[in-house]
Design goal:
eight-stranded mixed sheet, globular, alpha/beta, 10 helices, binds nicotinamide-adenine-dinucleotide
Length: 308
């Protein structure tokens, strides 16, 4: 017990906590002493309808295990109301796991504007709204741990999920900047890319894989990133089936397409000729900040000025 990672005194909001991954995050946090806001709209997996049942069941389960939790039935789009529930019940908010999600899978030709908007509203706008509403509290207390939920469907693409993929990569961009803006106030923001058996993946993943992808095997990875002892910030973690790894983007060395600083145009043919070097990733490396990207450009320009 003494060396257990504990969350006593911490208040966590887990969105979409009435089922799947969110339920496991909420249960684990509560079992380690956190007071948990179990948010869930309780609709279908495509975002239709609403019900209090999903959140209530998880709150009752947490309480039956001796934990503390309160239900919140708002859509994450009303992020201020979700955060209000935490403030009214417990007076603070330390942890947000932005997890609520829906699917409206269609190929690009068939996505309606409604399918596009609803998926973006729940995943991207919802995560923004909840995070923004909690921001003043986290800033004031100089502490916060935020998780954004992305997906391999965004990272690599997946047939029939253009709306979902776009929203999920939007969350990576959101996390990148939230991590930078929160750093000075000890507010960390990290990203989870999970693969888990849930109603979202039922019938999509092969049975053998589905049975091994228990959401409870991902929960400790996500909940660890919400602990005060975890220094990680702005990191993407992929996890499934009791396995986890860091993921990051890399940039190639590239090549200069101009021969001198005086040359103010580049021919299409020059691009064609250099394409192998433009796309060569043999010397690729990860950049830690936007300044490194612009710093490298300045170096390129300096060299051009020096004639080389
Ligand atoms: P799930 O359907 O079991 O859980 C999602 C929960 O979010 C549901 O209980 C649902 O009622 C709730 N929800 C939906 N819209 C809401 C809204 N507007 N406000 C509040 N709650 C809302 O699915 P899951 O697999 O546990 O997915 C959790 C998250 O993980 C989602 O963001 C999903 O996109 C992401 N994800 C899942 C997988 C996977 O393999 N399961 C892979 C990549 C990403």
């Amino acid at each position: 017990m003494a060396d257990q990672l504990r969350f006593d005194g911490r208040v966590a909001i887990v969105t979409g906590a009435g089922a799947g991954l969110g339920r496991e995050y909420a249960m684990l946090l509560a079992s380690r002493g956190a007071k948990v806001v179990v948010n869930d709209l309780g609709g279908t997996h495509s975002g239709e309808g609403a019900s209090t049942r999903a959140a209530d069941v998880v709150v009752n389960e947490i309480k039956a295990n001796g934990g503390e939790a309160v239900a919140d039935y708002n859509s994450v789009v009303d992020g201020d109301k979700v955060v209000d529930t935490a403030i009214k019940a417990y007076g603070r908010v330390d942890i947000i796991i932005n997890n609520a999600g829906i699917l409206r899978d269609r190929s690009i030709a068939k996505i309606s504007e409604q399918d596009w908007n609803l998926v973006h509203d729940v995943h991207l706008k919802g995560s923004f709204k909840v995070t923004q509403a909690a921001w003043p509290y986290m800033k004031k207390q100089n502490y916060g741990r935020i998780i954004m939920t992305s997906s391999n469907s965004g990272m690599y693409g997946n047939f029939g999920q253009a709306n979902y993929s776009a929203a999920k990569m939007g969350l990576v961009g959101l996390a990148n900047t939230v991590a930078i803006e929160g750093a000075k106030n000890n507010i960390h923001c990290n990203v989870i890319l999970p693969t888990a058996a849930s109603r979202m993946t039922e019938g999509i993943l092969p049975d053998m894989l589905f049975n091994e992808l228990k959401p409870k095997l991902i929960a400790p990875v996500v909940v660890y990133m919400c602990h005060e002892s975890c220094d990680e910030n702005g990191t993407y973690i992929e996890s499934a089936a009791g396995w986890a790894t860091k993921v990051h983007s890399v940039r190639g060395k590239g090549t200069v397409l101009r021969t001198s600083i005086e040359q103010d145009s580049i021919s299409l043919e020059a691009v064609q000729k250099a394409w192998g070097k433009v796309t060569d990733m043999s010397e690729a490396k990860h950049l830690n900040a936007i300044g490194e990207a612009s710093g490298y450009l300045l170096e390129v320009l300096e060299k051009l000025k020096e004639g080389g």
